[in-house]
């Protein structure tokens, strides 16, 4: 026998209207009541008639997610945060990767009207604001992540500049003066901000060497190539990689060449992906709560009036602040004096 919304309301001891609001992810439902309703609906195996829901509410109860890639621990953690927040509100996800292509990003966004209620977009491409504005459907609410910005949508960013500044200052404070930076892609917003933070931090110490920038691609391969070059040629005191996967590739290359980390070269990264704490030596990095970035972006999207949010309600678009995590891959002052 088919379970109806009335059956869920009766078992949860609430009204049909409250069940509807809870299952549709709307406001004005207490967290404990929402949790009870979702639990009851799950136990009764209640399955709403999605076509009927869409016709009655003019909503699909689906959120689009357009990312530059789906590969790697960063995107896995990001999707974990988005998915958890969506499931709490009975929402489904429609995920697309643009594989680093502005054209594919545009095509994915132009396919969203009628299929999703709102869209989360990570668009790190520099100079893409005009293209992004053209691709965003005017009647589909959107939130951008790690993006230079757009007048068409709210933006939620990581403080990449501040995080890179803090990491570089840490390496300087330990006593390193020749600090190489393995950069990310030249057309990437996050990479540019991290490079800017690195350069500005170096300028705060009079006896620090000039910026030493090696081009990378936010991946293990470019980090490994940079590590091989450092091991075979001119050697810095420390290497700061623009993300953890680059740092791990560099670390593997240095260890393979017989160099000790951090005794011969210190290594640091950015993001604190799960693997960072399990390599040997464990990686010093800037911790970004990547899953929280995804969850916050979805919560921000749901505050849009078209998705049940209250018009005029203040929204939290403050940047996520990375936190320094010092592990064995970078020497502390005590270890350098030992």
Automatic annotation (TrEMBL):
InterPro entries tied to this protein: HTH_LacI, LacI/GalR-like_sensor, Lambda_DNA-bd_dom_sf, Peripla_BP_I
Residue span, HTH lacI-type domain: 3-57
Keywords: DNA-binding, Repressor, Transcription, Transcription regulation
PROSITE patterns: HTH_LACI_1, HTH_LACI_2
PANTHER family: HTH-TYPE TRANSCRIPTIONAL REPRESSOR CYTR (PTHR30146:SF151), LACI-RELATED TRANSCRIPTIONAL REPRESSOR (PTHR30146)
Protein's name in the database: LacI family transcriptional regulator
UniProt source species: Pseudoxanthomonas winnipegensis
């Amino acid at each position: 026998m088919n379970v109806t919304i009335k059956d869920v309301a009766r078992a949860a001891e609430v009204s049909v209207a409250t069940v509807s609001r809870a299952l549709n992810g709307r406001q004005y439902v207490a967290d404990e009541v929402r949790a009870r309703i979702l639990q009851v609906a799950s136990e009764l195996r209640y399955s709403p008639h999605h076509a009927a829901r869409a016709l009655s509410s003019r909503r699909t109860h689906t959120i689009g997610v357009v990312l530059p890639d789906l590969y790697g621990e960063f995107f896995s953690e990001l999707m974990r945060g988005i998915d958890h927040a969506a499931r709490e509100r009975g929402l489904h996800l429609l995920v697309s990767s643009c594989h680093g292509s502005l054209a594919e990003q545009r095509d994915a966004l132009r396919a969203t009207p009628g299929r999703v209620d709102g869209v989360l977009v990570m668009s790190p491409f520099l100079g893409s604001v005009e293209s992004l504005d053209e691709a965003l459907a005017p009647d589909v609410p959107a939130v951008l992540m790690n993006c230079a910005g757009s007048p068409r949508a709210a933006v939620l960013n990581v403080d990449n500049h501040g995080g890179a500044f803090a990491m570089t200052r840490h390496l300087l404070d330990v006593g390193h003066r020749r600090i190489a930076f393995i950069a990310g892609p030249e057309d990437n917003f996050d990479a540019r901000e991290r490079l800017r933070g690195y350069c500005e931090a170096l300028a705060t110490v009079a006896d620090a060497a000039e910026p030493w920038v090696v081009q990378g691609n936010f991946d293990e391969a470019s980090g490994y190539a940079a590590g091989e070059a450092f091991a075979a040629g001119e050697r810095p005191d420390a290497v700061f990689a623009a993300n953890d996967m680059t740092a791990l590739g560099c670390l593997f290359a240095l260890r393979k060449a017989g160099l000790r980390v951090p005794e011969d070269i210190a290594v640091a990264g950015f993001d604190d992906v799960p693997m960072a704490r399990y390599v040997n030596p464990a990686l010093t990095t800037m911790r970004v709560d990547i899953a929280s970035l995804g969850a916050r972006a979805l919560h921000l999207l749901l505050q849009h009036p078209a998705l049940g949010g209250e018009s005029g309600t203040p929204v939290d678009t403050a940047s996520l602040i990375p936190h320094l995590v010092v592990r064995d891959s970078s020497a502390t002052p005590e270890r350098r004096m030992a």
